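Q: Start with the shorter request: fold the first protein.
A: Done. Sequence, then structure:
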Amino acid sequence: MVQTWICPTYAAQQYCAYQYLVRQANTGTSTAGDPYYFTQPSMFKYGAGQWLWDSCGAIIANVHRDIDDAILEFRTLMNSQTSNGMVPEEINWPAGSGNAWSQMPTIPWALQTIFNETNDVSFLKEQVPKVAEYLDWWRTTRDLGDGLVVTVHPWEVGIDASPAFDAPWHFSPSGIEAIDFATLYLKFPELKAYYSSTWSNNFTAVLAQTKARSSLTADWFFVQDIAINTLVAVGWAVLGDLATEYDTETAKTYYAKNKAHEAAMLKRMWDSSLKRFVTTYKDQDGTWQSTSLQTVQSLFPLLLRSLTATQRAAIVADVTDEAKFWTEYPFPSVSKAEDTYTPKYVYNLLWRGPSWGFTNWFVIQGLLYSGEDSIAGTAVDRWSNVINVSGVWEMWNPETGIGYGAEGLGMSATFVDALYRLGKINSTNEYAGNGITVNDLWASEQVGSSSSGNAYDDSWWVLSYGNYSTIDRIDLAGGTRVDQIAILYGDSRSSDSYYATHGDVGTSDTKTLTVPDGVDITEVTACTGSYLLSTRIFYIKFVLSNGDSVDIGTTTSSCSTFSAPTDQRVVALVGRAGSANNRVGVFAYT
């Protein structure tokens, strides 16, 4: 069984996250004349705008990479704030305009993380009042009279297709197969269009409805989500902590709002018989209902400051229950005990089983606040393992570690902050450009170049797959030089496969080598030469444990061979740059 490790050390994992944050950064000058900086969620998925909670996740990670970038991104986010305090879900720059609703209120934690790094009280004085206006927007526009806040659209929650919302949609699946993309996800744009065409996005009027105006299930989505309410409630406490640095009276006001919101949650959302928080919603007939289905949102209340010891212990027990949330790779978005749980990303539906980075981060913060440092540390190690297995992704299979969705999703980089908080890494383990060289990043000596200069470059590439992967085929293309290197990976437990490739074939010669079962790559030779004033890989050769080999290109006077140590095999390649091949190195593991 071959284990493939993309990022084998905490320091390398930090680099893996940072390369995406840098690649996905956008800078410029707004139409108002202010500089802007934001991290779009992904290069290949979602719009190229600033998304509220994605941006907060990037800020939390960038605090450790470049504090100036983190601060500017925070200012950019708050520059989109509307006159009534709302910060939109998605913001388009340079105009700074956004859509009609907000998103998971993660802003207080982004601000707190910046202050933890800078201790800049002047920045708090500038930004805390703005964030307070944002939380007040939730309180004044989304409280229907019981002290909780409702969301008007699944996209506002961010955890959009969660089974926690099946009941509000009047879906009653007996398993994941009962709902597909067309059945559920297409309701989201339908609801968006309905709000716009019928109500002109006047949510005060929308929320004033006592019952649905028609039989359409898209008439409304009035849900009191556990995670949203937790973050609004505890967000006030975070602002209280920050305001204490400069104005204790203002801090008292924030703490009072925290206590009031938490009291409402404990009264309305805590089910003492089930020993868990439940999702509440206003049904189409105007009656309030609840659903006790357990999702990752059910773990967020560990952040609450007024839980009893019994309540806190009950949630911690759910976190560590292997039949619920304590999976090989944390934390599934749906409890394993639920019929709707599916660990694999299928039917194009998000949040129905796979684990996600930012929700991991909040659960870990809740564990730390609860004094469960050991459990939090183990969770971070397991999170580290899944990045070793597959790299940085939008989501992961909580059982196999296979990555799904958008590669390099920015808010998954919150893992870096978790490393720092748990003491897994410190300021001496900076990313490349601040101490980490190529040799630190690669688990073997370099092949093809003797330089050990800084490896931090957004044009680096990695060919790898996941834990339990097998190398099934090697494809090469080239002529005088190496033009393309490709590896077909398989999975020893399933029929899944992944074709990892770098470079272009064009009109090059091609060669291929099938790797038999039980056979490994044990040796790699590469030769370099100069082309267009740059170093290029002119030749590469792979040798298998059965003696078979494949090569492409032309040898030069500067060649290097890496032979895997006894009981190890080559499992992945890393190199640079852009679409060319001018450096290449290998990972070798047992």
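Q: Next, the second protein, separately.
A: Sequence, then structure:
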Amino acid sequence: MYIAGLEINPPIMNASGIFSYSDILKNFDGVLGALVGKSVSLKEKHGYETPVIYRPARDLLMNAMGLPNPGAEAYATELAEFSFSVPFIVSLVGETPEEFAECVDIFERIAPPDAYELNVSCPHPKGNEGIEMIYQNKVADVTRAVKAHTHKPVIEKLSAVPQIGRIAYQAVEAGADAISAINTVPGLSLRNGRYELSNRAGGISGPAIKPIGLKAVMEIRQAVGVPVIGMGGIETAADVRDYMHAGADAVALGTVFCGMDTETAKQYLENLRRELYE
């Protein structure tokens, strides 16, 4: 699979936020077709207080991390110490189009990635970032701002909102080279009168959201002709095939890795590839 000339082979990657640190990501270089970093903002963010993860059922996980990250300059400096044999994608988050553009300038100067993913869909932001970009109709503005500062491929990461196909179309019209979907689904961590997350609200992931992800991917594929990266509840080769049938060109995996150590995760990926291609 290609995104603006960038080959992703196999068409399987990690979702942003999984294997967040560069030294961990390095372990999956060549196992995954592309590597995606943790969402990074212009300035450092400390995230929410614990608890930040809640798993009420095996097929459902909720998190509200608050997008903790060291900031663009510190993360770019860290990345400059690493090299990867597969495409490395930097995930960006910001409160304004200008913040996204400033982040791009920093990475282009210190450690240029192979592509950028624009996280305009985190469901539990601290400010006017994440999914607020969609609610405020700023997706196209963010895309144009970033495209004005780089020639690298730009991937727009969307959540399962109404008329997601229309939003994807607007992103592509503004210059997005691919669409990834879906981000986690908003939910409330209330159980027996008690909130299980410090932020109360969080993002739901895991197999429970797969039907939502499939529908979103289908709507996006009907609206745009650029590559689509499907995610949300993928665990098995059958799940991957379902996303491909719905219109995805590649997939990203996240929650399935929870509880796995590095070697277990690598073995899981090798088995997944074998089931898909042998």
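Q: Describe the second briefly.
A: The first helix runs from residue 22 to 25. The chain has one domain: 2-277.
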